[in-house]
Design goal:
Two copies of one chain form a homodimer. The first copy, chain A, has 294 residues and is α+β, with helices and mostly antiparallel strands. Chain A is built from five helices and 15 strands.
Amino acid sequence: MRSMLLAAIGVLGSGAAPAPKLLTPTDIVASAPASAWTAIPARDLLVMDLKNGKRVVIQLAPDFAPVHVANIRALANAGYWAGATIYRVQDNYVTQWGNNDSGKPWPKGVVAKPPAEYWRALKGLAITPLGSPDAYAPGAGFAAGWPLGYSTKGEWATLAHCYGAVGVGRGLDPDTGTGGELYAVNGQATRHMDRNLAIVGRVIEGMDQLSALPRGTEALGFYKDPAAGVPIATIRLASGIAAAGRPAFEVMDTASPSFANYLRVRANRNDDFYRHPAGGVDLCGVQVPVRRKG
Amino acid sequence: MRSMLLAAIGVLGSGAAPAPKLLTPTDIVASAPASAWTAIPARDLLVMDLKNGKRVVIQLAPDFAPVHVANIRALANAGYWAGATIYRVQDNYVTQWGNNDSGKPWPKGVVAKPPAEYWRALKGLAITPLGSPDAYAPGAGFAAGWPLGYSTKGEWATLAHCYGAVGVGRGLDPDTGTGGELYAVNGQATRHMDRNLAIVGRVIEGMDQLSALPRGTEALGFYKDPAAGVPIATIRLASGIAAAGRPAFEVMDTASPSFANYLRVRANRNDDFYRHPAGGVDLCGVQVPVRRKG
């Protein structure tokens, strides 16, 4: 078998000496120096506690959807999601939660019709290019810890709908999403949504609590019986939780040498299990490392 | 808001008249003529019934991994999986099942060390190109109903590890996977596995039964307590099920005009919900339509 693979490599025209064995992505994360990590501010952490005792933590993205994120902070601070549920789980698509169709009034400070923050200008973002082609955008890469598609001329940069990305549910009008109804991508990246919905963050802990739920049987994965929704206890900002119990996280700096190495290995797996490195990786095949702090 | 979007389109330099509204992917599937569908042979359907009463149906891919598929047929016919369980569920990675580490002997007719059927020659496959760039292979497209990456010179064509793809678990040696332990991709495509493991098929019904399971807490998503595994009642070929109860499916012909249209729409969503078609789509963002027959 080994001989077959070596023969195949010959066919592919590689005459170079074999590349040295790379570390695994896990090895690189474990050995990254403290300087490769950036603390996530507590006001950028949205903590969703389910009534079943499980926790989901979302990192907000104020640099990409500032009005929506301000709304979400206001909603959390006002306790808007008291009584909310997870009411939609569509397989290989999204898990969605909020006060669906409740008609609950917006708390003070919430912008009921925010602008369509589906992209921003590329200017001001320090991009680490993916180094592989992308099907959805002329450019793809990472900035400030986030995966992005962008126009190479710079007119737009959009957060990518990768697994765990959190976006704002809306109706047919592009400006009907306020932030009260949120979804998370629970399967293959839904990148066709990029630049069509506002991404406000990503799940950084507990994503399995959203992806391992029973799928809804109605159209678009809504639960047939609203009472069958998964009850949410609270959705709070970490900055609103007493210091002793406040969760804290760090994200790998996507401009760091550690991340460059991580990206290289993701695209060229050649640790013992792998015989044929791809030489490329999808934007959503690279999960930016996040870890608990302290 | 609308004006902002139109302004943005102007910036992007499109001076052409707006494209006519396209159908949705669902519309195209619903209106495809009978000639666009191909029946899946009953011997290519692996039917896994869980003890909880739920069913998972897998379409086998004998044209891509003939020795492994022959093994799987022999294992099914011999009742090899009696007492098997789903013992590994790793979030955003794979769900895996079989008789893990049981040391159960291989039934007669099983090739204990099959060749590494990780790719085949491109020759003989009628490719419908994806039409968008791919990060993992020089070429990407569809043939005989399957998503593929391939070398543009034709040396290799590999089934792609998209959501629902079923592969053969193996150890570190590339030839240790016999077919007794199978996995299904339960999140973002794991395309770095392409050409490193043997794909033998894909889940065409009941994938949510594998993706909505609780995640295992041990390394790689193994369940801590083997007794907590999800018990499997039977794994049979549809051809071994009495005609009255035999499930039957059809797959859309990926060389048909209907599929070409479906592919175009997947890459250019502009139905009412979407304001900004991507103009491209990922190989694993296009699920080849499959439906129950009759």
